[in-house]
Design a protein that fits this description.
165 residues; alpha+beta; Pnp Oxidase, Chain A; 31% helix; globular; DUF2255 domain-containing protein
Amino acid sequence: MKWIGISIALLVISFAVLLGSMRFHDGPLEILSGGPFKTGTLSAAPNDWSFLKDRATIEFQTMDPAQSRTVWLAAHDQRLFVVSGYMTTNYGAIWKQWPHYLEADDSVVLRIDGKLYEQRLQRIMSGPEVIPVLNEFSRKYGDGDAASADSVASGYTWMYEVVDR
């Protein structure tokens, strides 16, 4: 019994050290948030984001706090969108903190193929793009549910468009 307790304590400590050290890492590691970007070439944002249509994820960094993460994306009508789901759930409140950072400062840096794009994430709560963008997320990530603008309007899903600063 003593060894089980020691093993669990070591696992918890190891995980805490890993999470703490990620704050200094150059970008995220899969689902683990990372530190600010240290590598990449600052580039002008493209006028057409369609080249990302079949890309699974991109990395982006918030400014305050300076943390980076990996996020799913949707390219629609040459525009780029990201979403954060589960925003009205208890686990979403714990797991999804980055959207709240954007309320104070919506500036972000995207890192795609070694290029850095200084952009903003502008929240979308309604409009003609909501259903097509949600449909694109369903196509890419396969949840199979019919898209509903209600999830965005209710705040369950926070949708953002990537726009120029």
